[in-house]
């Protein structure tokens, strides 16, 4: 009898322990299911907001909402060019601020979208002196949108001690100083008219092994709070 009682006691203890574990696993499963459900719902919401809602709503008039001109730095290729084309598609005149390797982008935008374009030949790596010509070129224009896209990147990740000092200054001038100074140039007009938008394009190397480029862009993330 003692052996039977001991077995029943052991069985009850094991059953109670398993029951407690099952309750814990049930709670974990419920939390996991809730988290996955939230992610799916959020993805559906983002999909609808990004692709369905714009088709149902009336197209926004960017010129009326922001102004006649949009300034895009680094607009001669890639993301900057895409921004310039999309803004021109919405009726905005485009000011391309980039190096002399403009590759005929301004003429193509004018021909394709029928808007006015201006090209400012600038090498941001030269430092503060380049901004005088930009200020002169933008004087009197109704600048409503600024896209800070200019950036330089290493061809491959390097240890910061292996990067020449001149290259580090180039990264700072182009990735950080250019965005801050361009915002400083256009913000007074935006503040006066109480309208405008600044788009800051951050590179994908933030958080990766490209230390010097990532550092300049991370600093950029915090510095931009000065004008947000």
From TrEMBL:
Record keywords, A-Z: Mitochondrion, NADP
Subcellular location: Mitochondrion
UniProt key word Mitochondrion: yes
Pfam families tied to this protein: adh_short (PF00106)
Entry GO terms, CC: mitochondrion
Cited Gene3D superfamilies: NAD(P)-binding Rossmann-like Domain
Protein's UniProt keywords contain NADP: yes
Family, per entry: Belongs to the short-chain dehydrogenases/reductases (SDR) family. 17-beta-HSD 3 subfamily.
Family annotation (PANTHER family): INACTIVE HYDROXYSTEROID DEHYDROGENASE-LIKE PROTEIN 1
Name the UniProt record assigns to this protein: Inactive hydroxysteroid dehydrogenase-like protein 1
The species this protein was found in: Engystomops pustulosus (Tungara frog)
